[in-house]
Amino acid sequence: MTRKVHLGMIGGGTVGSGVYHALHRNGRLLSSRIGVEVKIHRIAVKAFEEPRPYEIPRGLMTTDWQSVVHDPQVNIIAELVGGTGLARTMILAALKLGKPVITANKALLSEHGEELFAAARKYGTNLYYEAAVCGGIPIIKSLREGFVGNRIAALYGIVNGTCNYILTRMKLEGADFDAVLADAQKQGYAETPPDLDIDGWDSQHKIGILASLAHGFWVSPKRIHVEGIRPISALDIKFAGQLGYTIKLLGIVKQIRNPKSEIRNRIQVSVYPALIPSGHVLADVNHVFNAVFVRGDVVGDTLFYGRGAGKDATASAVLSDLADAALDLKFGTKHRVPPFVPHERDGAVLPIEQVVSRYFVRLNVVDRPGVLAKISAILGAARIGISSVIQPEAHEGGSVPLILMLHDAPNGAVTRALARIGRLPVVKGRPVRIRVESFE
Ligand code: HSE
Fold it and tell me: Is 4 a catalytic site residue?
């Protein structure tokens, strides 16, 4: 029985040095809890002198990742370099040697997950990825093990700390997107360039992995409708607030019940900013924090909250995987929890055009008699109902924001109606449309 494991790490940057530090601090505790001694054997780094938040002893480092993977003493590999090129090669090389691999690489899994999982199966080993989604929140383990007896009716995630930080500050300060983004970049809360986060792609990677685990068929990123937070303005946040809502970037995975459909398991998988009731618990998830709200058909509603990124939160998830990998080696149970089990043959993602939502619409209109009638005629013809209207008082003839709350309607119908409304001469600029999520 394995009583000692040797970890080979690839990556000695923010996450890698975080894992080194966490193991230095709590390695003994972890070892005594699992009954296996865990040692870092070697860490492959880009350069010995990189800036890193925690020092790594020079004697542990090498710049040759292959020597770490191929070292016969190393029996677990952690890939902590990121990216979808070399990281894929590194992971495949380790899996081919039958070594279990831990990764924090969501972009790689989202793009090449099926290939990597198949390689783990083929070479009789396993791939662990708790750190890939929402850093310190144990959501992968919860979906695969904690909720194994549930169908996941809905999952809503605030899974990008950068966007949540920007939206929180916009709400608290009444500030516009560009100003908050620029300041967030200056303070190191947002990357430069920020596109991966603020345009929703990072959330897409995470929500795709969660949707796949929750529903048992691989949800490719191509199937996920993504909108980021760039179009959200201080005005939207202000009017949403007046109506009792807070705007959050949500990843949504929802079972769509349609008794007429031949496909049994149709799900919505999307990432977009949404108005959520300010009284809902997710509305209070602020700054860089992440949260995932999971509704299981047996358990009911559950909530996970924590830091989704950063050296320590991510290290905590890597340590959890390390414990699992060490226990699986100890008991010879490498396949106890496979990385992904495709168990749903009839699964499909519903195209966004067919998803039914409620909407907040902000128009900039000329304040003139008959304008509202023209707009509501277009909506009425498309069978889209208005549930409320706000228009601040203005001087006749000037332009003014007009806020419409719309009843449930398919996304496709609303997109077409708004395109027609946007072409009316009395409507200035592009209509802004934000979906409303009420968690029913
Ligand atoms: N950049 C991400 C975020 C963390 O802002 O949450 C890594 O996925």
Answer: no
